[in-house]
Design a protein that fits this description.
single chain, about 130 residues, mainly beta, eight-stranded antiparallel β-barrel
């Protein structure tokens, strides 16, 4: 049985630090992010992205997110693996569930988001039993 989960996500903290910048290689940075989820999922997450900027307007990123909260009054914990890009003022990511606990124990799945300016965006996740 597949579950479709939607939520609104609010970025509460974005702490980005460059760890490589050179005229011979693209700028690279790490961002530590804290987010709040409301909707089907109620909770918070901690996320770390590694990013590479080929120029000042675009970036590719990968990362891992640990989301803890509740779904239909039951505790959930998820670890998500992100692969995304920033282009044209929009950050978008596709992600896979690496680990699930609580109400989502025994489920795997994938999802996506697209976020413009403002720090708030919609999140969609589809889970299926293993």
């Amino acid at each position: 049985m597949a579950l479709k989960i939607t939520a609104q996500v609010q970025v509460e903290k974005w702490d980005e630090h460059e760890y490589m910048e050179s005229s011979k290689i693209h700028k690279q940075s790490q961002a530590d992010i804290h987010q709040r989820y409301t909707g089907d999922l109620e909770g918070r997450s901690e996320l770390r992205y590694l990013m590479c900027y080929p120029d000042e307007t675009r970036a590719k990123f990968v990362g891992f997110e640990h989301l803890s909260g509740q779904w239909q009054g039951k505790d959930v914990d998820l670890v998500l693996e992100h692969h995304g890009e920033f282009n044209g003022g929009v950050a978008s990511s596709r992600f896979d569930v690496l680990s699930s606990r609580g109400a989502f124990e025994g489920y795997r799945g994938s999802g996506h988001f697209a976020a413009g300016k403002g720090g708030s965006f919609s999140f969609e996740l589809v889970l299926e039993t293993i």
